[in-house]
């Protein structure tokens, strides 16, 4: 015994197919106990609600190893703190020669740029450091705090100053 379509009616966005139990010859099976007005209805073309997502599968195997990167060139330090790593007199390197920074106009914003160059977050204080020697490279610094290099800050010019080493700037980084 199989189902045979008796009548198909189009409804907007839904196709309704009326089915009745028929035998293989197309005759109604008298043993199905259906009254003459009972029909089976099948809706065609109606989407139900989406089902639940399945469980997440196991991770796949690791991918192949990537290519070796280019060898970097070590960068020469442009700034350091003497005598410590996080606190000390500010010294800058100009063409391989270390020199100091004058404390005229030097503040924590200038110090922040120096501290960030050294890998710290910020400067918590500035002070007049113990006197250095040699060149005084920078004076009248005017950083905005967004510079990545102290030499990108406003200053009076490399090597141009009106200071002595008893005015060398120091900074405390954190």
Report on the structure:
There is one protein chain. Helix content is 6%, strand content 33%. It has 174 residues and is mainly beta. The longest helix is centred in the middle third of the chain and has 10 residues, at 108-117. Residues 14-20 and 34-42 have low confidence and may be disordered.
Question: TL;DR of this structure?
Answer:
The protein has one helix and nine strands, in the order E-E-E-E-E-E-H-E-E-E. The protein has one helix spanning 108-117; strands at residues 2-11, 14-22, 40-44, 79-83, 87-94, 97-101, 123-128, 135-138, 169-173.
N- and C-termini, Cα separation: 86 Å
Total number of strands: 9
Uncertain stretches of 5 or more adjacent residues: 14-20, 34-42
For the record, what CATH class of the largest domain applies?
Answer: Alpha Beta
CATH fold-level label of the largest domain: Mac-2 Binding Protein
Taken in chain order, the helices and strands follow as EEEEEEHEEE
**How much is the average pLDDT?**
81
Number of helices: 1
CATH superfamily of the largest domain: SRCR-like domain
| Helical residue percent band | under 10%
> Mind telling me the C-alpha Rg?
42 Å
Organism: Liparis tanakae
InterPro entries: SRCR (IPR001190), SRCR-like_dom_sf (IPR036772)
Keywords: Disulfide bond, Glycoprotein, Receptor
Pfam family, one: SRCR
């Amino acid at each position: 015994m199989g189902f045979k379509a008796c009548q198909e009616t189009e409804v907007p966005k839904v196709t309704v197919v009326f089915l009745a139990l028929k035998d293989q010859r197309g005759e109604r099976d008298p043993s199905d106990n259906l009254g003459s007005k009972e029909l089976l209805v099948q809706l065609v073309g109606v989407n139900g609600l989406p089902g639940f997502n399945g469980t997440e599968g196991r991770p796949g195997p690791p991918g192949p190893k990537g290519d070796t990167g280019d060898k970097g060139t070590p960068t020469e330090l442009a700034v350091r703190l003497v005598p410590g790593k996080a606190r000390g007199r500010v010294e800058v390197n100009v063409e391989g020669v270390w020199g100091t920074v004058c404390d005229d106009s030097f503040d924590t914003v200038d110090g922040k740029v120096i501290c960030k160059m050294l890998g710290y977050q910020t400067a918590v204080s500035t002070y007049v450091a113990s006197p250095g020697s040699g060149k005084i490279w920078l004076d009248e610094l005017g950083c905005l705090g967004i510079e990545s290099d102290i030499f990108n800050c406003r200053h009076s010019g490399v090597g141009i100053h009106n200071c002595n080493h008893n005015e060398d700037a120091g900074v405390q980084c954190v």
